[in-house]
Amino acid sequence: MPIPPILDVFVVWHPDDRTGAERFADLNEHFHSPAFSGLAGGAVEVYARSEPWVPGTSAPRPLGIDAPLGNGLPPAQFNAIVPIIDTNLARAVADASDGWGAYIHEIAALNHRDGVGVYPLVADGFNWANTVVNGILGEGQTLPTQVNLDSGLFGRELAQAITQHIQLEAGLPTRLKVFVSHTKHRSTEEAARSGPAIFESVREHIAQTHLTTFFDAQDIQPGEDWEQTLEGGAASSALLMVRTDVYAGRDWTQREVRTAKRSGMPVVCMYALTAGEERGSFLMDHVPSVVCDLTDPDPGIEMALNRLVDEALKNTLWREQTSYLSEDGFDWLPAQSPEPTTLAPWLAEHQEKQPDDDHIWVIHPDPPLGPAERGVLLQLCALAGYDVDVDIFTPRTFAARGGALRQ
């Protein structure tokens, strides 16, 4: 199962810039988080480009995008380049005898190639408006300077920019939509709280971000098919559950989550409980979750939005990887771990489309299911008539099998 690298992130900074190494460390930690570790192979990697590469010159090692750096080192399918612009880099680029000028020109030229995005980040407090480096890179999608002070925001802004770039090249809607699933009904304990409802606070946070395309059930016009509208936006939407005390028991929120899961939308649950739930719902679980402390909700909301954008990028990268994984013969390649909510309708559709198929082969991102979870899914497959050749893999467990299915 040889899978080429899908996304490489290059952080470029002048070696005399004290903050460049910090920004590299931020992204290195972000893209090696659990949100991306479940993809196949070394799907996402972060590289530093700072120290001189060739003796007698000042430019760093080539990126390896235009030409491979060596045998067996092909460029990734998508590449994100983040030049850190500060006084030292601006001076080096302006110096005609310094190799940094040619290096930055090469980066600017790559920005016009398919699969490459350049996202300059200007150091906090530095005005680059009249610099030579601005004339070279100024047309790129500059990241907001606020990310210098917030590593979580840095990862979210870059992840969103990369997602939009990949969506654009795939001919899909580029603006990431957040569907906020919530209920206006409150428990007695929630109603006793002062201040705005938590979903209103979520709305306010989204309005202050680049996630400006926002909708929920209230925004769907009368006469529209609600489920069709939600499913139609699955390629560019992500659902945030605002799970308050009575959320899990409401019919409408259950339908929203079920539709999102079956449509393959990324879903994140933000737990915002006050007194707890009378009962949960099996429809609501099996998704990444974030805790929101209602006495200080802002950090929890920010964490939830950060994770939601990461899940959207993970879904996008998994979709790109499935073009390679499908060659191994898998029947289903969901971006989220399979569960009864999603497996049951998929089995019905599979039986209808391929009635003579006698096996079920599934692969999904890591981590693998637990034995008890796997047992329930195998039981469902047996009830559907598939009780002989059923395998549910992740990239890691498939590689451990030797990267081959039973034929």
Write structural notes for this entry.
The chain has helices spanning 20-30, 34-37, 87-94, 100-110, 132-137, 151-169, 188-191, 198-207, 226-232, 251-262, 297-325, 340-353, 371-383, 395-400; strands spanning 7-12, 44-49, 78-85, 116-118, 121-122, 177-181, 214-215, 237-243, 267-271, 289-291, 359-363, 389-393. Strands 1, 2, 3, 4 and 5 form a five-stranded parallel beta sheet that branches. Strands 7-6-8-9-10 form a five-stranded parallel beta sheet, with helices on both faces. It folds into three domains: 7-169, Rossmann fold; 177-322, 3-Layer(aba) Sandwich (Rossmann fold); 329-400, no CATH class. It is globular, with a radius of gyration of 23 Å. It is an alpha/beta fold and 407 residues long. It has 14 helices and twelve strands.
Summarize it.
By secondary structure, the chain is an alpha/beta fold.
Outline the secondary-structure elements.
Blueprint (H helix, E strand, L loop, with lengths): L6 E6 L7 H11 L3 H4 L6 E6 L28 E8 L1 H8 L5 H11 L5 E3 L2 E2 L9 H6 L13 H19 L7 E5 L6 H4 L6 H10 L6 E2 L10 H7 L4 E7 L7 H12 L4 E5 L17 E3 L5 H29 L14 H14 L5 E5 L7 H13 L5 E5 L1 H6 L7
Parallel strand pairs: 1-2, 1-3, 3-4, 3-5, 6-7, 6-8, 8-9, 9-10, 11-12
